[in-house]
Amino acid sequence: MSEKTTQKVTLAKALNMGLRKAMEDDAKVLLMGEDVGKLGGVFRITDGLQKDFGEDRVIDSPLAESGIVGTAVGMALRGYKPVVEIQFDGFVYPAYDQIVCQVAKMCFRSQGKTPLPIVIRIPFGGGIGAVEHHSESPEAQFAHTPGLKVVACSNPIDGYWMIQQAIAAPDPVVFLEPKRQYHADKAELDDTATPAPLFTSRVVKQGTDVTVLAYGPTVKTALKAAEAAGNEGRSLEVIDLRTLSPLDMGPVLESVRKTGRVVVSHEAHVNLGMGAELAARITEECFYSLEAPVLRVGGFDTPYPPARIEEEWLPDLDRVLDAVDRTLDF
Amino acid sequence: MTQPGFGPDLAEVFGPAHEATSDSAGLSLVQLLTPEGERVEHPDFSFGDDLSDAELAETVRGFFRDMTLTRRIDVEATALQRHGELGIWAQLLGQEAAQVGAGRALKPQDYVFPTYREHGVAWCKGVDPLKLLGLFRGVDQGGWDPRENNFGLYTIVIGAQTLHATGYAMGMQRDGVVGTGDPDRDAAVIAHFGDGASSQGDVNESFIFAASYNAPVVFFCQNNQWAISEPIERQSRIPLYQRALGFGFPGVRVDGNDVLASYAVTKAALQRAREGQGPTLVEAYTYRMGAHTTTDDPTRYRLSDDVERWKLKDPIARVEAYLKRNGMADQEFFDAVSAEAEDLGHHLREGCKALPDPQPLSVFDHVYAEMTDELVTQRDGFAAYLESFEGAH
Ligand SMILES: Cc1ncc(C[n+]2csc(CCOP(=O)(O)OP(=O)(O)O)c2C)c(N)n1
Ligand SMILES: [Mg+2]
Prior knowledge:
The complex is a heterodimer.
Chain A: E1 6-9, H1 11-25, E2 29-33, H2 49-53, E3 58-60, H3 65-77, E4 81-85, H4 96-103, H5 106-109, E5 119-124, H6 139-143, E6 149-152, H7 156-168, E7 173-178, E8 187-190, E9 202-205, E10 210-214, H8 218-231, E11 236-240, E12 243-245, H9 249-259, E13 262-269, H10 274-286, E14 295-299, H11 310-313, H12 317-329
Parallel strand pairs in A: 2-3, 2-4, 4-5, 5-7, 6-7, 10-11, 10-13, 13-14
Antiparallel strand pairs in A: 1-8, 6-12, 9-11
Helix pairs in contact in A: 1-7, 3-4, 8-12, 9-10
Chain B: H1 10-14, H2 53-82, H3 96-105, E1 111-113, H4 119-124, H5 129-137, H6 146-149, H7 160-174, E2 189-194, H8 201-213, E3 217-223, E4 226-227, E5 230-231, H9 243-247, E6 251-255, H10 259-274, E7 280-285, H11 304-311, H12 315-325, H13 331-354, H14 373-392
Parallel strand pairs in B: 1-2, 2-3, 3-7, 6-7
Antiparallel strand pairs in B: 4-5
Helix pairs in contact in B: 2-3, 2-12, 2-13, 3-10, 5-13, 7-8
Magnesium ion binds at residues 194-196, 224, 226-227 of chain B.
């Protein structure tokens, strides 16, 4: 039995460790992106990896996102497992064509002969006081695309395991990292533990009155809301969805059958966001368990606002609690 | 090394020991004022030939003033960021000559498409520098009216604006304001971008469109040697200005720390465009003396030796030396510029702190030119929600 060693790590550190482990385990794993080499990425997620694995495996790319993803396709066809970093959510769009038309469809077009094990890492979400294009939540645009799998980690432990699982997965995975959490909280990481499978959701707090569905940055908000609600005698069950495509509806439906009330919370615009799909599925699959309509709390249907009003714009604790009140009052 | 038929060896193009930050600008660099402040001749470009001695002195003093005030904007904004008044700032330190040279070559009818670092060009176009701070403070996403000074909004998505510039120039062609021979009517566009941006698809597509339609646009690339942590070699294995040839229009490399040369070359390129002779690529060879932005730490990826070497080529010091050596400016002038810089600093400090935070409900304004009912409903709901708190306190 290997000796159990644990250490307290941030999400940034955990992702860095996860990437390192994946590179040690599989020589075909490559990292590519803008400033991922010497600088270690603008968030330092790849810190030290170029030094240890060399420039052939940690590749500073020219400044061109379509180029990054497009060449990753070619490398994957050649048998490599590219993990590309998009510097910020708002800069993924130059690569959108490659992701949606090429990455997503290669397995289907080749009748399964050339699946693409590519991971597209995207720091996403707001709350860091940044200028425009640095705080976006584009997950629905990818979850809407058949052929892509989309996951979002919310904490260091998941970050460590999920990045390795995404790299090992045979399909392309859009891997969303809540950037405001990168350096926020530390968690005890035990790297001998057995992680849950990648495409599964998880109940992170048990409750009986209302189910709150969250992922990425809103998981922390939901947990805080659950605490605040608990002080007022209301019991919230919080589910960290973790996987957005495919959705893992099992734990969600089980919870809804118990509570009969659901609030979905994400930073992305509410219109046609993940909440819309979840509401539809819940309605289809457990209509008679519902005591109230599924409520969505998210970004308003506007461009992401200037930093000085992002706290008002984002779905914070109060807005989640407001929705909880509304669903209970229904 | 190179097989016949494949053109020159890259080592020949760059010289044997090409380094990102050495004096690798090459022989074809257009320079009219040396780092020591000496005037030099160039066969194709000149400055001041058409000016009297008094006019020439006045113009150079103007450049000195513009560069000094531009640097002051930069220094002041950097300090405001350090004091938490701005979220971030993109410094232009070291790039004052490229920007003022280009900015002063523009006529009022010319239109500018900037990146996020063109504070010096904004200054030349008459944009109140206080308005530049809003984006970086997080109170707006560009507080100026692009139509007022023909100065477009800052563009953060790398390279996107080069296509807008090209399209704008195509519009000018259709408006009949190109090649009429009327100096007050003929117009052109300038598209700013960086060495890193030269890799983007959008930039390369803009070259294609501009060439294809012979659009009146000057592509002004400030090659400051770095795209955050990545040196120019990662983006190009040929001097950037030479790329233009492959697209079918001329390219020129100018000493971007020489305001006279930057002005002369940009002026000539703009004039070509206004006359209907099509696009030009100007590569202003310069150096990013500061960090990429205030959140960047360049010690992780570059040597301070390089920065020290480039300090000797400071764009303002050489103009000061030139003015002083030739008796083109007296102490009174320098004192007046210093005083003006102090006033500008004060204006920015006080003005920045007084910039009001936007109202939360304002986020619904201007999403569309025609507001939708859906959004009105959302806004009203949010307003009611916010009011419910006011009652509670
Ligand atoms: C499409 C896109 N990708 C990535 C970024 C992040 N980013 C901001 S500035 C920058 C480097 C730009 O370098 P360069 O074009 O040389 O301009 P400079 O900053 O040196 O003026 C990068 C990668 C971005 N803003 N847009
Ligand atoms: Mg640059």
